[in-house]
Each structure stands twice: as structure tokens, then as C-alpha cells.
Amino acid sequence: LKYVPMKASVRPAAHEPWPLKPSRSEGTFGGVQPSPLRTFVYNDQVTKSLGCAVNLHHLVMKRIHRTLVAAVATCAVFSLLATPAMATESSPDDVPPPLTNAEMQAFVDSEPGSEYPDEWTVDASASFVVTEQMATTDPMARSNPYDSRTGITPTDPTVVGADPVASSSLENGTTAAVSPNRAPTPINCRASQDYPHRSHTIARRINTHMIGSCPVTPVFHSLAGATYRQMWYGWLLQTAVVDVTSKAYMKVNVAFRCAPGTYDRYRTYGRFYGLHTNGYKSVSYRDSYAFAECR
Amino acid sequence: MDRVRTVASLLLGGALMVTGTGCSDAGDRQQSEPPPRSSSPSATWEDEASVEYSVDASTLPTAADLAEVPRLDVSGVLIAPFLVMSSGVAGAQPPDELTWPVAPSTDTVALETAFVPLTAFFAGSAEVNADGIPNVEEQAFAECERGADERCTFNTDTGRVTMRVPEEIDRTRPVHLIVQVEWDVVDSASPSSFNSILASYAVLLEP
Fold first, then answer.
1. Alpha-carbon gap, residue B108 to A139, rounded angstroms
2. ipTM value of the model?
3. Most confident option among A81-85, A214-218, B187-191
4. CB within 8 A of A237, min separation 6: which ones?
5. What percentage of chain A reaches a pLDDT higher than 70?
6. What's the rounded Cα separation, in Å, for the pair B167 and B163?
7. Which residues from B are below 8 Å from A29, CB to CB?
8. What CA–CA distances, in Å, run from A217 to A175, A246, B98?
9. Are B38 and A233 inside 8 Å of each other by CB?
10. Minimal Cα distance from A36: which residue of B?
11. Are A1 and B145 inside 8 Å of each other by CB?
12. From the CB of residue B102, how many other CB atoms can be counted at a distance below 10 Å?
């Protein structure tokens, strides 16, 4: 359940934090801070190359040929270093291109923590586990494992065998064999999802990151997310993303282009699914709500 | 003297090469820093905002089950949805004008369906515009998600879903109540799809 007992009429001025519920620790909700109009990526190699030019000019003028050879070689090295990382500029006025399939795939395939380091905030949420009972009650489990709609929490007392502790036996990375007389060993996967928030690398974009991490490589691993924007008549879908892999670790960015200058409340609904070699499947749902400013 | 100038020049150039500060000024340096980190974990996360829940898969409908979206029962007044949206189908637009059926005050609203919704969205406002459309900035709103909760429950014991109106909605005076119910649907024709159906209802609740 999620209640947000507040009136939107108390909306603060731009760049002021919304007086929502207190955050877990210090910090302003939504983090609406002004950013520089232009972002200039500074690069020391540029000025080092300029130093080379100063030296070369002086050596040529003075005809110090022996030193000139060494200086040319040095400058060549610095120039090579400077070339791939030249200073770049970006402006929020530039319309960001939509995410391509390749970009999304690269995002999913990349290693943890190697991309978007300034905005990748992960919830160390509870793992989820699914029992064989669920695999038999879900009508989609046998036909298509991607679209199971059964969710469960580790602490749900109504599900037999949903004991997260049992998964500790899988820490060695093995999976139990399927046996008709023995329930497959539960496998805990970790479902993490952050809040809808403004992208810090691309203008006019709202991101929600999802991470699914399993202790062993599953047969199928799927993350699906949908982000909604609150309207007077309820939630309006902004985007939906579904991705599937066979890797133990996967992540998805539920991203969409927003209207600049708006300050809206968003909700992202995420579904985490894993089908394992021992027959267990794990499904978990997450919902996250947040206000976000688009700029 | 020339040698002195040569050595000095070389030293200057070398210093530029080593430190890499020769052509930067304060403005560049300031702009070169990364943008303010406006989304620290503490600013982005809230403990209670992520909810996990479980549901019996047998309660999930297919798209065909919801081909006709059930009416909302508010104190015996049956209200048809004024807007039905599907996450897999674009194009549904909210109305330009809205009429408000009147219903006696109640704590719960009901749906004649056994399919447990994924979420229920409540938004209440005392006033609406001339066209009957509420001002979103005047709405007080609350959500219920599927799962056990004592303040807003989905009760299917009687073969229909009852939802308790959250106390955040002020009912001491007439309130224009919007209820949006969302079902996640299993689509057998496209099992890999990720669909949900959202139906919005409007009712003027008497105090």
C-alpha cells in the first residue's frame, strides 16, 4: 500500500524540494538543484599539448635540433593521449536522442557500476524466492516463463517453503536437480529498483533503474518495467520496457523523454522474473513513486 | 642570456606539460566540474516507497476477461468508467468534459469482479472546473496496491472486489472522487507482453 496524503497545491517553486515525506537520511527530495547551463568536460591533456607547442616553437626558433627531436616525440605522445578525450561540450538545449536498442543492450550488458556512476543508486532490497507451488499454480509458467504474474515475498507466510534462509544452501552456486519427489531448492534472486528520477547525463529524460541479480545463472532472466505519470484521472503510461537474458545479473533502465519544465509525480512498476535450471521460478514486483522535474 | 631564456622557456613549457594548468582559468575549472549530484541515494530513495507483494495467479484476468470493464458500485450507484486505457494500446484520451454521478457517502466502493486489481488510485477534490475536470493541483490522492493492508483492502470474499476509500480523502463535504483501477492482465495471445488495463471512474460523494 502506498499513501501520499498531500495536496499538489502546495507545490513549491522551481528548484525547491517538494515537502513530501522525509527522506531516509539527509538530502532534499527529488534533488532539484540547478545545473550549469553548459557542461564543459575539462581535460588536462589539452593544456599539456599546449605546453608542447610552446616548447616546439621556442626550439625551432633557436634551432636547437637535438632537443627538437625529443620534444617532437614527446608532443606526439601527448597529442595521442589528448585525442580520444578532447574537451567536449553539451547543452541542455540539445534534444537528446531516444534510447536505441544498442544503447539499451549495452546498458544491460555492462558490468555493475561501470555506467552512470553518478545516478546509479541501488536498493539493497530483500531477495525473493518462489517455491514449486508457485510454478504449478501459475498458468503461464509452463507455456511461457516470461510472463508469469505471480509474485511473492520472502516473508509471505501463506506460501509453503518460502523460507529465504533455505537459499543459503545455494551460495556455492549450484542448483538442485529436478526431482518429482523432492521440492527444488529455492533460489533467491535480488530485485532492486530505484525511484523515477531525472537523468543526470541526458537532458529531458526520466530514468528508473532495475537490477535483477541471481546467485546462479538462470535459464531465463527477465526484467519488465513501466513508468506512469500522474494525471487528474489517474496514471498515464509513459513507457514500458521488457528485456530478457540468460545472465545471472541484468539491469534495465526504464527511460523516457519528458516535457521540459514539468514537475510531475511518477510511478514505476517493475517485475522481476527468473526461471532456474532446477525448475524454480522467482517473481517479484516493485513499485516506486517520486516527483521529478524535467529539464 | 639566450641560453638562460631558452632554459627558462623550456622549464615553462615543461611545467605546462606536467601540470596541465596553463590554459585553464577559474571559469573553465568551475564548469569542468561534474554537474551537482542532485540524486544522492538519500535524496532518491525512501524506505517505504518500494512495495513487494504476492498474489494468487488464478485471480489474474486475461484481456478477454476485462473486455467489458466492470462498473464501480458506490453505495448502490453503478458507475461506468469514463476512461479505459490499456498499456499496450495508445490513443485513449480523457474527456474534455466530465459529469459527476452523485452517490451517498460511503467508506467503500466495489467492483463486480473477482479479479483483484493491481492498484487502485484515489483522487479527491472539493471543487472542479466549469467543464467538470478537476484541477490536479487541488487533488488529494492516495494509492492502494495489491496486498494486505488494513487501511485499504481488496476483499473478494463476496465474489466482488471492495476497496476502502482512504481516509486521506476528505469526505466531510462533497468530494469529487476519481477512482482509477488497474489490472495486470495475462494475455494468452501475446504471453510475453506486459499489459495492464486502467479504468477511471468519477463520482460525487455526498458528505
1. 32
2. 0.72
3. A214-218
4. A226, A227, A228, B85, B87, B198
5. 38
6. 12
7. 43
8. 9, 7, 52
9. no
10. B35
11. yes
12. 12
What residues contact residue B201 under an 8 Å CB cut-off, 6+ apart?
B72, B79, B80, B81, B82, B178, B179, B180, B181
Q: Which three cell numbers stand for residue B181?
A: 483501477
Q: What is the DSSP string of chain B?
A: -HHHHHHHHHHHHHHHHHH--TT--HHHHHHHSPPP----HHHH--GGG-------GGGPPBTTTTSSPPPEEETTEEE--SEEEETTB------SS----EE---SEEEES-SSPPSEEEEEEES---TTSPPPGGG-EEEEEESS--SSS-EE-TTSSEEEEPPTTS--SS-EEEEEEEEEEEB-TTSTT--EEEEEEEEEEE--
Residue B153 has pLDDT above 90, yes or no: no
Strand B161-164 versus strand B108-111 pairing type: antiparallel
CB-based contact A259:A126 (threshold 8 Å):
no
| Closest in A149, A232, A267 to B136, CB measured | A232
**What single-letter amino acid sits at A79?**
S
Q: Which amino acid is it at A230?
A: Q
Contact between A186 and A280 (Cβ < 8 Å): yes
Condensed to tens digits (0 to 9), the pLDDT of residues B116-143 reads: 888 899 999 999 999 999 998 889 988 8
Q: Which tens digit of pLDDT belongs to each residue from B9-46?
A: 555 555 544 443 333 322 222 222 323 323 333 223 32
